[in-house]
Amino acid sequence: MSTQRERADAAVVDAYAEHLRLERGRSEHTVRAYRREAIGLLEHLRSVERIEVEELDVTALRSWLGERAESGASSGTLARSAASARTFTTWLATTGRIPHDVGGRLRAPRRGRHLPTVLSGDQAGALLDGLDPAARTSPIDQAVLLRDAAVLELLYSSGLRVSELVALDSAGIDHSQGTVRVRGKGDKERIVPVGAPALEAVRRWESEGRPILQENLASTARADGALFLGVRGGRLGDRAVRTLVDRHAGEAGIPRHISPHTLRHSAATHLVEGGADLRSVQDFLGHSSLATTQIYTHVSAERLRRTVDQAHPRA
User: Is the CATH number of domain 121-259 3.40.1380.10?
Assistant: First the structure.
């Protein structure tokens, strides 16, 4: 199935390149660059978003740009990527491959270094401590809340990417060592520590919640040892994780959009603020370059500056 999908994507990219070359009169250098961007976007849809081309929306486009930003792409590179994505989505819509052009709402990042949004310690606590399965009467609702608590705890405790979290199998959690085995970008494996509250949340989910959702396994669904399940029993998807994070953040009174990446950024920032060295944080996050990790020193400095501005009488 994946080979068939890859062949279909390759055909789309070939047709797009011909359009750029013959109808738009773009240079071979530009065609190669736009082709490379289109290939990257389609690979992201297939491996991370797990959606078809016709399901492409601005959320998926932003997710792709966010992944590129995390890999260390400069703001200028991201701006060019956004422009090429808009060209690609216009062509997809014009040729009837997607229902309408979704790229118009994709905005290039501002020039200059962008500091990621992070939660305060109090906000993280409110989010993680606010889930009470006992408040639900339905066994399914209780199971879902146990799962959501484990998802939130693990995202914040171990700084996982959402793609890494949904790919986890139950065998990837080592309760005796307090670690999780993660396969990240470039198929690189790393072992990340898991905090005690997250381990307990995962234990409760596996023993009390997972069996209930497992019973709902549809005949066409395959859990394949997945750690986290959806309500129909199959492996939990990326979009479902984004939805549950944002919903529970709203219920916790956090007055802005929160994504799984916000929890990852928050975990890294709080580590740096607590005195962790950058090399350790780099290993924790699975960054290939220390330059990517250094953003968190800027985040901490910016938070300190805001605190001084608000509290110091002569700031």
Answer: no
